[in-house]
Amino acid sequence: MYTLDMSTKYASFIKYLRTKRGISQSVVAEKLGLSRQSYMAVERGIREMTLQEAEKLCELYGISIEELSKVTAPQYEKYKQMILAYLKSPVSTDGRVPKTKLAKLLYLADFAWYYEKLESMSGMQYLRRAYGPVPDPYFRALDELEGEGKITIDRKGEAMLVSIGAGASRQKLDLLQGEEVELMKKISTKWKDKRSQEIVDFTHEQLPYKLCAPDEAIPYELITQEDPEYVY
């Protein structure tokens, strides 16, 4: 079912549909009855569409509302299990990982999975922030997991170190496929001894980050243009 926050969740796919067909933002804006500035806000994930606008968009691209609603639908609970899976993997020598580094590891898993399977692991929409790609629900997920006792967060000044909590001992990672967990283990092993700034710099140099504007939704499709050795 269509919901009014669809455009913020699927902004990257909406942009992909337009660029794949070689249509300008001005043309799409006119079809939707919007100003170019308003349509640009839709593609950046900061403006919601009305149902009528979404129907016009689907008519333009020859797809149904149902098809649009199913595209990379975010799986929030699965995303939380991805956090726990990383913390249970060899993510660091002492089992603690900086919050910023953890966010980048999750990003690499989602985009590396898309590179291999042409679908996101979690379906989360990542935004191009100054400190790297991150979905807004990341911070809520950490708060909820901490409140449930499944993770522990050590706060030292502005630094936040995240580790697995006692409450996660019986937590099943049943939303994750074995292949997905294996990919995350490979990523965590590669970055285990690297500093947060190193992984931030790495993601900043990847095409998805470099080709997007600040605060813009990052299209998963861009990772397919990356060299294999720079996917994660």
Automatic annotation (TrEMBL):
SUPFAM superfamilies: lambda repressor-like DNA-binding domains. Keywords: DNA-binding. Transmembrane segments: none annotated. One of its GO terms (molecular function) is DNA binding. It comes from the Bacteria. CDD domains: HTH_XRE (cd00093). Gene3D superfamilies: lambda repressor-like DNA-binding domains. Residues 14-68 form the HTH cro/C1-type domain. PANTHER family: DNA-BIDING PHAGE PROTEIN, TRACRIPTIONAL REGULATORY PROTEIN-RELATED-RELATED. This is HTH cro/C1-type domain-containing protein. The lineage of its organism: Bacteria, Candidatus Zambryskiibacteriota.
